[in-house]
């Protein structure tokens, strides 16, 4: 067992806090030692680590909007993709409830902060449920285990001598919940009221001057380690271009971080252990949620990774990069804890090219949007059109266009053509043609020659595309290019629609007395069905309900919907819909939009 020594404490610890220190995450052989000499257990465990993906935890000062839903959907698709591959996976989402911003919002509503948080956290939870986010925990920073985790974290930082107290003067921004250095502040004027105020150059949000005693985290001590980490992991942030900004910031602007506020200013938060006159800085509190969920500090020696840490991906918006790409790794490095493996930082949804935000008042309510378009249509739209590098403008007519082209006209139409036609039977096509393909692998399509050369060419091309879909989608998912993966699936669907158009099975039906035409007919239907089956299996993480409806319509059994089956000729038992379809009169999986 490899163990990491915790450096000697620089300050005496308060008795009450030491007593509350959990024993389980301290290396067994060190439990008898004074606290300052105990060691973390960090064995190279052989126990399995689930895939672990997180969303940011959302401020409860306002109701959720589609920007929040976007982070949730991206994380959910990543989790479901792993599950499709047969890997255990965990998704954690939740709410960030402490801090000045929430304290002020509660006061404005004339509510006690906790009561205010309960009401608003419920809205985010309802959003996660409605959007079909398969979260394993909805964490709230007011949860008892989280508050304990934060206290332990603080205690360990202090034990390492990385916390000190000094007077702090600077510009605090309540909206962004952070201090800004003088160099990043400018004068602005409100265009409506004429009020002149000081604001952050980066976000435009108002700042206020404050001078107070507070605790600081010796973040500058981690500068070299941070820079070394970035240099060794150039792909840590997706998109990688955002890394430059982070490196530049650490090189040129890194300072020690103020990590507490006087209680008389900020009472809504976790008290500093042993100094109840101070409240822990909300970002330190919030970031720790990621390890609370993973079991910190109750990690059992040798099994630390079972809770998921280190996270495989933190999904975040680009506006909170500094907190996740500088503060969070610095805090983790300070305690010799492993860093998250990747950060997926997405761009913003805008409305008329302005960032959607509560303060501007240009937000789209995701619940209304899902009621209007359907849950899976919204999930589809967000992943397909949402920005990673560049912002994306939210646009209802684009949603309608995507629906008509890709969903109703694409996968929906294809499923209807194949599974619900009065002119042919899918079970017969899978039965007669499928049996011939059984046992054939990658080049199966090439091994099944038919006399008609032009059909043969079409089938071969179709086969080759179909055989590589799962691999291409998998590679894009691996690169966290979710939109690219979805677009590839849609291209695949539209290619199949073309195959049908070009082979015109309705003409073959008319000549089905002829054995050659009948064979061709069955082969077209079978190859098209294979491609819908494969596409729908791979679409499950993106549109869980609709993909399941497609697979139901094809009659694919529940146990044959995993990635191993996303290859041609791996399932010959489908064809009869799970829920009976009224042929010719089926309204389909993606019905016509009411608007026409
Ligand atoms: N509470 C912090 C996060 C703490 S994580 C340890 C926070 N909360 S937030 O509610 O303001 O934002 C949550 C997420 O929503 C962020 O990733 C943010 O980028 C994202 N979005 C907020 N507005 C957005 C858009 N208009 N578009 C896309 N995402 C947006 O920051």
From TrEMBL:
Residues 51-418 form the Methionyl/Leucyl tRNA synthetase domain. The keyword Nucleotide-binding applies. Pfam families: Anticodon_3 (PF19303), tRNA-synt_1g (PF09334). Residues 471-569 form the Methionyl-tRNA synthetase anticodon-binding domain. It catalyses: tRNA(Met) + L-methionine + ATP = L-methionyl-tRNA(Met) + AMP + diphosphate. CDD domains: MetRS_core (cd00814). GO terms for cellular component: mitochondrion. Its EC number is 6.1.1.10. This is Probable methionine--tRNA ligase, mitochondrial. GO terms for biological process: methionyl-tRNA aminoacylation. GO terms for molecular function: ATP binding; methionine-tRNA ligase activity. Keywords: Aminoacyl-tRNA synthetase, ATP-binding, Ligase, Nucleotide-binding, Protein biosynthesis. NCBIfam families: metG (TIGR00398). Belongs to the class-I aminoacyl-tRNA synthetase family.
